[in-house]
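HUMAN:
Just now I want nothing more than another pair of eyes on a protein record. I would be glad if you read both lines and explained how they fit together. I have put the entry right below:
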Amino acid sequence: MDSRDTDWDGVRLHVVTGKGGTGKTTVAAALALALAAGGRKVLLVEVEGRQGIAQIFDLPPLPYEERKIAVAPDGGDVYALAIDPEEAMLDYMEMFYGMRRAGRALTRMGIVDFATTVAPGFRDVLVTGKTTEAVRRRAKNGKRVYDAVVLDAPPTGRITRFLNVTQEVAGLAKVGPIKNHSDLVSGVVKSPETAVHFVTLLEEMPVQETLDGLAELRSAGLPPGGIFINMVRESLLPQAVLDSAVKGRFDVGELTLGLKAAGLADGADAAAVAESLVGEVVEHARRTQIERAERASLDQADLPRYELPLLADGVDLAGLYELAASIRNQGAA
């Protein structure tokens, strides 16, 4: 098994959150592949019922069971679990009351929907409980079943409430199995074995939501992880050129000469092509300037950062492996 050092040695539960549209599920899947590389066994869990894992790995909808979905680079396996709250409730009934059959009857009566409507935090206890059980689980030989668990969690705006299960059930149960169960979950989630990673883009709204989410997370005593900046576009021009373009000092004549020298256009055509390119250069320069400002905003988070490239051909299975390699190369896994 690969024994490389990473930024998150000792972390066994990697919670991945982010504003909608930032590629949260993609990053969670790539992180799972990266963590499994070199002979490890990793479980990738989703809790929102969207079957996002199945879609990104180009698989049929996943059942409520842990099943192998991918082989990681240099060996290693990625398993996946799409948690269904009703099935999690049956597990709960069996684990604490030995009442799985009765639980099925209650499920048919809609008891899960009733319970989670009366106490919305209970649903989160069920799904986080199933996840943390996988983190704690050991084989008969005493070894951990999974080297790491990656949780594709709810969006940033809901992540603290989702993970802060002890407080969520405080009004539901002061003692008994539910309270004990939530304490077990909280013991894992708030431990050094857990890290909550944020996925963002270099845009104002996702960056601000990341910073707000981090502040809320820290206030609740939950462990922040790293920041994954997704879909980063490489700047193709020198910084001096970009600065000039933003200030309206871009030299069209120089661009025209450059086009001619490269044999890309001649005569009047070169001037026309240069004029059309100027707008693209200025837009690129302004976007780059905004991205620099957003990176500076993220500095205040004081957390490790990882930049993942925008994939020109979109995120397919090959793209996932490319992102996983980038995550490994930056020391996140």
In short: The chain has two domains: 13-233+310-329, 239-288. The chain has 14 helices and eight strands. Residues 8 and 231 are 22 Å apart (CA to CA).
